[in-house]
């Protein structure tokens, strides 16, 4: 475990900061034993999250949900149509509004989506052994693309993307298959993508840590911001 506690170096590139200065990342780095599902999480989601958010979505336009409005405005500043390339948190809200069940992928990814619904932030969880130690959050280049989870190749032009020395592997819209969480993942990195400033991340990081510990049995967690 010696090298694990060496935190990755993560920076937000000027290509994003100049277009949207309120861009910040909340980061959680930890060990985990991923299970196929969490019964406790499913029960909590149905009993506590669904009633609360259903009521909120009835009284609030989806595009005005906490942290969604800012993310959509940020995408516009990058030259992206947020109605065509939605942040993942908005896509989850739309799924809930359509009375569809929460995705059941595995205990870590399901907790990731639960935190996203609770906060309005898009989250990405990645197998830390599949990415480099130096990560940059920047805008995608014209020729860049990757195979997204559950999708075909997607164009990353002007998209906010998380990259390492190999290239992009994640974004607030859809992550690539390269670093996806699987049942063999032992070390993971979760990114909370904020376009709402830095101060909004403290509470979200605390919530994420509580939910991951409760539903995903993570340990040796380190949190920081970029």
Account of the 3D structure:
This protein has 226 residues and is α+β, with helices and mostly antiparallel strands. It contains six helices and ten strands; from the N terminus they run βαβααααβββββββαβ. The chain has a four-stranded mixed sheet with strand order 1-4-7-8. The protein is globular. The two termini are 24 Å apart.
Number of strands: 10
**Helix run count:** 6
Largest sheet: 4 strands, mixed
Helix content: 25-40%
Shape: globular
Runs in which pLDDT lies below 50 for 5 or more consecutive residues are none
Mean pLDDT across every amino acid position = 93
Class per helix and strand makeup: alpha+beta
Order of helices and strands: EHEHHHHEEEEEEEHE
Straight-line N-to-C gap: 24 Å
Using the CA coordinates, give the radius of gyration: 16 Å
Strand content of the residues, in percent? Answer: 15-25%
Spatially, the strands of the biggest sheet line up as 1-4-7-8
